[in-house]
Structure formats: structure tokens, C-alpha cells
Amino acid sequence: MDDLQRMREADDASAAEEEAQIRQAQREHERRFRLVTAGELKIKPAAWLVRDYLEKNSLAAYFGPPEAWKSLYLQDMACCVAHGVEFHGHEVEQGNVVYLCGEGFGGLAKRFRAWCIRHDQDPEQNPVLISTQPAALTDPVNLASVSGVIAKAEPDLIVIDTLARNFGGADENSTSDMGSFIQACDALRIENDCAVALVHHSGHMDKNRGRGNSALKGALDWEYRFSRIDDVVEVECTKSKDHDRPTEQAFRLEVVEVDTDDAGLPVTSVTLASTDRPKPPPSSPSGKWQLKALAVLGQMTDEHRDNLKDSGHSPEQARVKLADWRERCIDREKIPRNRWYEAKRTLAESKQICVEGYFVELAG
């Protein structure tokens, strides 16, 4: 057999093998891709990883400004899932957790130890698996390598902290690059049948949305916004694809001693503790008719106080009849009737006035 014939036979064998692989791929695709009638679709009960806040096999993003404790929140959730501990009063399904860490390696050991101490768990037995470096998920070669390592852990939750640090060298603002990142997250989610949670930054110009291309929000099953007011962080669900949005959460920091240094001084870290949401400051009235109606009410209140004082009664008992306020605003001050009703409603909703039955008074 000459060399040319052997080359032809090798090419034929290679072509036959390639054709067999194509047919196998087609059969596999046909097995997965099929059409069913709407009547065949079954309603599946929610499979919660964290009751009311995160479903299994879903994609979620948690965004906010720097120092809004986003990472701390996901580290808390990761530990709760890994240990089967309630997440601030919400039941969890215990499972394996992989944490793709892109930043904050220095404080991570202290934070995880603080969580274990606060929840009476052995820090040396914390089963959360943490990456030693970021994962460039938009790089196909790197994604394949990372996916293989993650699959061995059989995760129920993958935390990607942060999106930017694990994005790779691509552009967050590019629809194409963000699409590649979403596909990577979906691949991790589908291959492992797990939830994927992204720690993300808020937009540069619009703090009420995540940074980068808007394609991300369209792909999400869950989205949560973090906002900090003094020493309290509020967490609000801004997207829930298939469920009612859960109740807003509020947290404060709790300091935990995790070690001592060479001088015998305490080494501390922090964990999250649930707290009450701070009361928003009363909003100031705005608009010509609101201001005018409020001024009239203040004037009438002062008149009633003077009358009570002159008659020997306590001025604190002063109250204005709602009908009298309306009549003076509309008839004497010439506030249009519809504008007065609108001003009354707005002032009551913003807690500038209190309406009780037939009476009205200034709040506070």
C-alpha cells in the first residue's frame, strides 16, 4: 500500500468519525429540543434555596454602591446554605457552595471565621469552597477550565464576587460581551442545576440600576438593590421574575472578635445582624398649592390656639375642622377645588398633616 492510499484511507476514516459525531450531536439536540402542547406543561412548585429570596436553578444579581455590604450579604448567605442555617429567619435548603472570589481576599478569612463564631459553627469545618483567583468567564478557554473544577464540587449555589472581577478582559457595556457573560452564567447554572448569585456595582450615572449593559437585567430571575443610610443597609428586591417580591431587609454590622494579634490585642471582623428599617425623614411639601394650603392650616391653628388661651383653655387642644380648612382655602384663598383635594391627599401621604375624622392638624 503506497503512502497516497494510506493518506486517503486516513482521511476517509477521519471524515467518517466526524460524520458520526455530527449525527450523534443531532440526535442529542433532537432529544433535548422538541415541541409540546401547552396542555402538557406542568406547574412546578417553587424550589427554594433561600425561602422567598432565592430559588434553585436561577440567576440573581445584588447591586449597590461601594461599602453597601453586598459581599458580606452573599458571604452570609453562602455560609447559611453550606451549614443549613436559617438566613435571617428564612429557611434554607442545605447544599454545596462555590464562592468565586475576585477581590477582598485579605478580609475573607476573618469574615468567614466571624460568621462561624456568631452562629456557633466550627471555623475549621466551614465547607464553603473559595476560588484562589478570579475567573475570566467571558474567555471560552478559561470558562471550560473553571467549569470543570466547579462541576466536581456539585454546587447548589455559585457566588460570583464581583461581576467585574470575574468578567475577564471584555467590556461590561458591550451587548455582545455581556451576552457572553450571561451565557457563561447560564452554562454554570444549567450544568450544575444550581443558583448563580452575582455581586455587582451600581451604575456610574444611575445608582438605581446595575452597572454595564442592560441585557443583564433582562436575563435575571432576581435582582436586589442595596442602599446605605448611616449605619444601616437596606436590601430591596427590584426584580422577581416568577414570584411576589419579598419583604425588604435591613441590616447593621455586628463586631466579632476572631483572634488576637502578637501583642495580645483583639482582632475583629464583622457580620450582619437584622435590624429595623430607619424611618425616612418627613418630606417637605412642594408645589404652590401644597405650600399655600399648609400655610392656611398653620394660620388657622394659631388662631385656634389664641382663642383657647384667651378663654383659659390649653392651646394644645387646638384642632381645625376639615370643612373650615377647605372653605377658607377655596373661598378666601382662591385655591382651585381640585387642587385643594390634591394638596390634602399629598400632604397626608407625606405625613405633613394628620386627618382624623372631621378634624385636621399639622403633623409633629
Number of helices: 9
- What fraction of residues sit in β-strands? 15-25%
The N- to C-terminal Cα distance equals 103 Å
Derived from helix and strand composition plus strand pairing, the structural class reads: alpha/beta
Instruction: Specify the overall morphology.
Output: elongated
Helix content: 25-40%
Q: What average pLDDT do the residues reach?
A: 89
Spatial order of strands in the largest sheet: 5-4-6-7-3-8-9-10-11
Gyration radius, in Å: 30 Å
What is the string of SSEs from the N terminus onward? HEEEHEHEHEHEHEEEEHEHHEE
- Please provide the count of β strands: 14
Low-confidence stretches: none
Largest sheet: 9 strands, mixed
Summarize the structure.
39% of the residues lie in helices and 21% in strands. The chain has 9 helices and 14 strands.
Textual characterization of the structure:
The structure is a single chain. This protein is an alpha/beta fold. It has helices at 3-32, 70-83, 105-118, 140-153, 175-192, 215-219, 288-310, 322-332, 337-349, and strands at 48-50, 54-55, 59-64, 97-101, 129-130, 157-161, 195-201, 222-229, 232-240, 249-260, 266-274, 320-321, 353-356, 359-362. The strands form three sheets. The protein has a nine-stranded mixed β-sheet, with helices on both faces. β9 (232-240) and β10 form a beta hairpin. α4 packs parallel to α5 (175-192). 29% of the residues are buried.
